[in-house]
Amino acid sequence: MVIQLLLAAALHVDPDAGNNKFSATFDAPLGERIEAVSSAVSCNLTYDDKAGAASGNCSVPLTSIMVDNEPTKTEHFQQWATNKKSEPKECRIEAKIDGLKVDPPALSATPSKISGEVPFTVCGRPRSDGKKEKLSGNAMMLPDGRIRVRAKVDKFNRDKYRVGPKYTEGWLSRVQQLAPVVAEEGTLDVSIFAKPAETKAAGKP
Description:
The chain has helices spanning 2-8, 71-82, 175-178, 200-203, and strands at residues 10-13, 21-27, 33-38, 42-48, 53-61, 66-67, 92-103, 112-118, 120-122, 125-126, 133-141, 147-157, 185-196.
């Protein structure tokens, strides 16, 4: 009964919790393996435990993402993501979730599979071909009532979101030089802990 009450409520992922993780890994066969990481994942979700479907949105601020733990690489990534046309602090990587399937719907200590297609944006830019990303993973209920979600997107193509040197002023002369070094396709991994969102009514004694 407690689980049903929890699942009927809105869910929130706190970007300041420190235990959530977003990572994007791009591994070029003839170049570098680059990993961009952030713990500032924010989500506002709802879960229909009867339909086994989750909806809502998750986002990561660009300025919270560190690339290979190197300030120079991180600055370059910010330039590539914004195309130097907006401030990094105004940019987010965002996913809008609608009807993400959860099977079996009743979350427990045994992980349920999650799957679906999710539209992403980078600095407000959707995929150039209008398609969505295929997301898969699992969700489970922890003893303290939180829900742990682990999800992955394979073959995430940064070029389709216009993230790269050829879209960025001042980098055009280096496009050929960088082409074999930085992979266009990578993998996104997300590990988050969601808990029931607090409401004003819930805060009353």
